[in-house]
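Please describe what follows:
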Amino acid sequence: MVRGDAVQVRRVSGGCVIVENTLKEYYQHAELTVPENSKFHHFRFRLQSGSWLGIKDTVRSPEDLRRWLLILTPMDVYNSANCFLNPSSMSYVKFDGKKAGWNISSNIMLWDGAIVLDTDFHIRTFNEAKRDALVILDYLYERGYAESEVKFTGQGFQTIVEKHELHLPRVSPKARFNLYREKRKHILKDLQERGVQVDEEILLDAKRITRTIGTVNSKNGCVCTRVRDLEGFEETEAVKLNLEGNAPTSPTRAMTNFFYHEKEAVGPHWCKGEHTRRKESKPDQIGSANSALEPSPTLYLGSITIGTCDRQIIMLRFKSDVALTQLKENLSRFAIHEQLAPFLIFKSAKDPEGLWALSPTAVQTSGMKRLLRRFPRDSNVYVRFHRRIVPLPIEYVAQSSGVTNSEIPVSASHYKYLTHYGLLENFVPKVLCGSPNLLSTPIGEMNS
């Protein structure tokens, strides 16, 4: 999976190959594999901030994919298991907003789709998952599916069949998705009767994404690998990347932890084949994008809960002339009514006209608009920019009351950041969301 003359490798006890390179160095020379007809496949990245980004570009070859990997250096890389007429805009059905409902143009699936069978070892052993994968191969062979691809994802096996008899008629796109699901239910039932633990939604959902061969699984550093001899394959054969010390290099939310460059405060604007910082700026071609990635000395504390896909903390901004006593009372009532962790009030040296209130409660992004209905201005910021940021350095002012229920989900990274400065001493949560380990460098951005 890696060109040997371009990387540093070592073997540890057990025989596993460890690649001593950063993600970016690895992707410069990695042997990437894109699916057949890749121009009709949707590609999606999980960035180092924990958020997801669908690539608004056509990936025709491994080199097209490599360009994006070197620019964004994502933690995980996926592609759709099936082909779509307009893959760059493939999306799930939205039930809120102006475009609520079924978007036909973004959901036209081509041909008959694939059969994707996933068996992993999240809560069981490698050999148990391998046994299930072998049973799946025997089952497919019995049904006449001799041509199938097996890949080791780092946490299990995926078996993909492209050629089969589960043909879909020429009906509406929505009906095709329903038929896709119905025609695969008997496969799920047959395998379950044989004692196989297979992921139901990956098999039945036409829009599911699978890990791209040659890319890294951030959960354990293993490289997703095509398996040619499943029976003889052992976990020690997997190439593993040493992710310790990898600093984020993504142009979207590129700073370590949850800090951002000043140039990225508004958020990137993506368009096909181009990368621009803001809508009004001149577009930079992908090949020359490095010229626009110079670091800025101004950092921001962000609301995204690192290590999660859809959670953020609550950050509110008030005018600096507001009465502090009244503000604390209002925040306390709000926190108790909505079952939130206490709010901490800060001043920002870069924003002298405002006061900031932060609660480390990890809230689902989809519920933020309802939660902040009392604060329409702050709610609009979350809806428009999908996050909130406060410029550093900040200075602690006061703390409001909150609920004492320690079962409230709290952002692990923000909680570690606040307790690093002796705050939230009387609040000890039992449920932490995300990863606190990303806070591995000295912060030093809060004035006591």
Observations:
- The chain has two domains: 4-241, 301-447.
- The two ends are 49 Å apart (CA to CA).
